[in-house]
Structure formats: structure tokens, C-alpha cells
Design brief:
This protein is 18% helix and 34% strand. By secondary structure, the chain is of the alpha+beta class. A hairpin with a 3-residue loop joins β1 and β2. The protein starts with a strand and ends with a strand. 22% of the residues are buried.
């Protein structure tokens, strides 16, 4: 099953607040990805990049640029309920 993202808000300390189209809200700590996927380190190393997060066309994930993205399913399954 695919979970569609309605909106994403970048919060302090690299926590994303994500709302899905079915009303479920999750918080996702992207700091956990800095060691697992080195490309995510750019979000803390490039000034302003973290705040540029947006919902992808179709709502199946979020992205910052052509290299850094995250599937909605990952956020839904591993994010914390709010």
C-alpha cells in the first residue's frame, strides 16, 4: 500500500512534521539517515537546503532536490505518531 503525503513541514533539529491524505500525522527524524545514507548529510551541511523540502508530484514522497528524497511509506512506517 502506498501512503500519500499531503504536506510536510521542516521543524527544528531535523524533525519533519508530515501529514498524510488520510489524516495521519507523523514526525520523522532525518538525523537517523545521516550515517545510513551520506547524501542526507547535505541537509545539515548546505545552508538553507533542509528548509526547501516539498511534497513530490503525486504525493508518494518528499524531496529536497534531484538527489535527496524520501518515500512516504518510509515516513509512515518509521515515523512517530503525533
Amino acid at each position: 500500500m502506498f501512503y500519500k503525503v499531503q504536506s510536510v513541514t521542516p521543524k527544528d533539529d531535523f524533525i519533519l512534521s508530515v501529514l498524510f491524505t488520510d489524516g495521519v500525522k507523523k514526525e520523522y527524524d532525518i538525523k537517523l539517515l545521516f550515517d545510513k545514507w551520506p547524501v542526507f548529510r547535505n541537509l545539515k551541511e548546505i545552508p538553507g537546503l533542509y528548509k526547501q523540502v516539498r511534497v513530490d508530484a503525486g504525493g508518494y514522497g518528499i524531496s529536497w532536490n534531484d538527489e535527496i528524497d524520501l518515500e512516504g511509506n518510509e515516513i509512515r512506517e518509521n515515523g512517530k505518531d503525533t
